[in-house]
Amino acid sequence: MTKFALVLGSNWLLSIAELLTYIQDRGFDGVLVDHSRNAAVIEVRQQLDADQIIDMQSALGGCFKIGRVIWEYDIDIPLKAYPAKKAASKDSLKEINKCPWLKIVWPKVKGKKVRFGISTYPIVDGGFPINFRRFTRGLNDQVKKLLIENGARRADYYAYDEPDRRVRDRLNIALWPKSIARNALLTPPNAEVLAVFSETKLYIARTNVVYDSMLQQYRDESRPFVSAEISTSPKICRTLLNLSGARPGDIVLDPFCGTGTILMEAAILGMRCIGVDIDGDQVQGARSNMKWLEKDLGEKLDYNILIGDSRELSSFVKKQVDAVAFEPILGPIFKKPPKRDEAEETIKELTMLYLQVLKQISKILRPDGRIAMTIPVIRTEKESISIKFSDLTRDTGVSLYKMLPSDLIVSRKDIDARLKIRPGRESIPERKRGQVVQRALIVLEK
Ligand SMILES: C[S@@+](CC[C@H](N)C(=O)[O-])C[C@H]1O[C@@H](n2cnc3c(N)ncnc32)[C@H](O)[C@@H]1O
């Protein structure tokens, strides 16, 4: 049994739903044993090799780092060693400072020059009685001292770069994937160590692989066709693909392909893809993106992008597809929350469109195939209005797939309300600050 710690994307619940679907679909015998709003800890029965871990990192849209857990402390130890308000306990500090895991990360350091970094992932951002900044600094200093005592020629640690622009109150105590790459921190004897906190434990993990943010940035900036209003973020595209159960070699359909971001991500993951869009400009743009990707990857990609109305999909897509992933049109852009009637009218029209398209998809989707899609959630002045699932599945031949299966989640009864996972969820919100039309992700199966 091996435990892995995974650093999650900003939508922690969606990241966990994606992770569990991935684990299940790949036949890994694993469960979620612990989590926070920043990280998940999974326990896997079989041995995962380095390639499988790298594949998992590069497939998951909601994962930034994966590390094998090498030590666990009861939470009381860091709580007493680095309390936010009270005086520190000398015994607990001594216990932390022993760092018995050091020998696992650095079995031989004599005469070596070591660069490292500790990245701390608190349980929630704020409101936990540990001084995480002092903890991180203290552990970095201690590791440096012990490495020198163990015979390292030099030991230098990297302490933290820019704050997180998305979550301003997030403490600046973890290294960005790009800093890890830039400083070759994953090349031995260098190492990044993850300190992952949950309500009951502190997990120490050695990072195996991190998200390649530089490659993604290069692709985002270099692809010829992108539209700020239309394009879906590549990370959400990956999450949709994983929720749809698409695997390398599968044929994936995006019936609202727009600029082709889902198609590009699918192709990068080794899938064959079919894209459809009603707008000729989008189709041309998506084709030019795929051509660009072919050149960039230096290989021929298997794709077909068609102009057409997806309400008539089965009349022009004749192939059976294995999985479907898409972000459809989500209705008009509201500058301010609309009245309830207006929102309900929009939802009614979109439900009609989605229903027609789902009926068509059901004709060409393989039995047991899944569809992952986003739906709009419109904020009115008083409440949020969205699609009724029973309306969406009526006579479509598909039914709702429940995410976050309870048999893959080992959860405690007394868990903090901010960390509760309700198993078997039918939708997961994906909110964007300040927008009237929010999104939720749902999965359907044939
Ligand atoms: C939100 S965008 C998709 C964004 C896409 N995932 C991307 O990354 O660029 C929705 C797309 O659906 C297309 N669309 C709208 N109605 C359609 C229909 N009936 N059939 C096919 N495509 C349609 C629009 O032209 C638009 O490009």
Give the name of the CATH superfamily of the largest domain.
Vaccinia Virus protein VP39
How many β strands by DSSP?
17
Distance between the termini: 34 Å
Helix content: 25-40%
- Work out the count of structural domains: 2
The appropriate CATH architecture of the largest domain is 3-Layer(aba) Sandwich
What is the global morphology? globular
- Tally the helices: 14
CATH topology value of the largest domain: Rossmann fold
Question: How much of the residues is beta strand, in percent?
Answer: 25-35%
Q: What is the arithmetic mean of pLDDT?
A: 94
Estimated radius of gyration? 23 Å
- List low-confidence stretches: none
Largest sheet entry: 9 strands, mixed
Helix/strand/pairing class, anyone? Answer: alpha/beta
Identify every distinct bound molecule in the structure, by name, code or SMILES: S-adenosylmethionine
**CATH class designation of the largest domain:** Alpha Beta
Any descriptors?
eight-stranded mixed β-sheet; binds S-adenosylmethionine; alpha/beta; single chain; Rossmann fold; VC0802-like; 446 residues
